[in-house]
Amino acid sequence: MPPTRIIIKRILISLLIGLGIGTAINEITFIFLRETARAPKVIELVIPEGTAERVARGETPPTIPDSMTFVVGDTLLVKNNDKADHQLGPLWIPAGTSAKLSLDAVQSYAYACSFQPGKYFGLDVYEALTLGTRLYGILYSGIPLGGLIALYALIMPVKKNDPEKNV
Hints:
Blueprint: H1 3-32, E1 42-47, H2 51-56, E2 67-71, E3 75-80, E4 86-88, E5 91-93, E6 98-102, E7 107-112, E8 120-126, H3 131-155
Parallel strand pairs: 1-3, 2-8
Antiparallel strand pairs: 3-6, 4-5, 7-8
């Protein structure tokens, strides 16, 4: 095989190895970001009856998380089933009613909150993880890695066949 073909073969194999490693790394990372790999939707948070009394005693309501994760475009629908009025940041939710909060920007919020003993509620809003985002991650990590592997492969000497040793 001529040296030029060997070099091209090494470069192509190196790029494939780099893309393979890039894919593995990005897909492992995707496992931890899976909750943001979805389309925007309405997410309901229900304030159960007796929440105001529990919070007054310093107890955390069992069905309400300390914080929540969303994607851009989600809507948080807060239903107040308690007998007391509650507040979540800009939302005032009278007893027996509900209110909506549109989450249209990537940001971490720490809203004042009357249904948590700590008096705040954390909302994390992320960009939705799409197939395009995943492919960009693979390409942006795999191609440079493949290039580095190709550079290493190019400095390795080409193995020459000695016809006398094969006899």
